Amino acid sequence: MSLPDKRGRIDHRAPRLLWQQVCDDLRADMDAGVLAPDARLPAEPDLAEQYGVSRDTIRRAIQELVGEDRLVVLHGRGTFVTPRE
Amino acid sequence: MSLPDKRGRIDHRAPRLLWQQVCDDLRADMDAGVLAPDARLPAEPDLAEQYGVSRDTIRRAIQELVGEDRLVVLHGRGTFVTPRE
DNA sequence: CCCGATTTGTGCGTATGTATC
DNA sequence: AGATACATACGCACAAATCGG
């Protein structure tokens, strides 16, 4: 077992900030249904490894998506795709 | 009851990363038979205290050794030396 | 069956140092 | 000078799994 490699989705030389690129990719996965409502994301350190960025960058991206009501973070449990009402 | 002091095995000023030093020490104990197959390691907070490092550092070391198939981690039970086949 | 202790899982917040743009 | 990003490391709080009384 190994983590899916998502480094190819991030361009470290692009003019767009890394955390925004992570946002874009997570949004795309949610829109495509790869990340369904109520689904739990991998842990922050795991996401950092998958995307090949730091945990700091992952946290910024998550913070943004929480502000957009697309993710919900539960302390000690994990980060989840916002459930359908 | 008191925990064995393993702080002397860790050099906070060495060029080698702390979690790698912990890895080295755990590997040495396994190779020497001090940690036999199926043996349970002390809990993560206890290891952290023994080595004088954070639990985070201990977990990184454990994660590495799991990747090497030398340790097995069981939620709610403990961390064990990989059994012989 | 319930309760508490133990242990791992996860996230929160922060700090330091380095490198790059 | 400042913002962005990385890597490492620390301590803490809360959640979930397991086990024993």
Describe the fold and architecture.
2 copies of one chain form a homodimer. With 85 residues, chain A is mostly helical. Helix content of chain A is 41%, strand content 9%. The first copy, chain A, has one domain: Winged helix-like DNA-binding domain superfamily/Winged helix DNA-binding domain (Arc Repressor Mutant, subunit A). The first copy, chain A, has 3 helices and 2 strands; from the N terminus they run αααββ. Chain A has a two-stranded antiparallel sheet. Chain A is globular, with a radius of gyration of 12 Å. The chains hardly touch. The structure holds a DNA duplex (21 and 21 nucleotides).
List keywords for this structure.
DNA-binding, 85 residues, Arc Repressor Mutant, subunit A, homodimer, mainly alpha
Task: Please outline what is shown here.
The structure is a homodimer of 85-residue chains. By secondary structure, chain A is mainly alpha-helical.
Name of the CATH class of chain A: Mainly Alpha
Quaternary state reads homodimer
Q: Count of helices of chain A?
A: 3
Number of domains of chain A: 1
Using the alpha-carbon principal axes, give the shape of chain A: globular
User: What's the SSE pattern of chain A?
Assistant: HHHEE
Summarize the helices and strands and which ones pair or pack:
The structure is a homodimer of 85-residue chains.
Chain A: H1 18-31, H2 44-51, H3 55-67, E1 71-74, E2 78-81
Antiparallel strand pairs in A: 1-2
Helix pairs in contact in A: 1-3, 2-3
The first copy, chain A, binds a DNA duplex (21 and 21 nucleotides) through residues 12, 17-19, 43-45, 53-57, 59, 73-79.
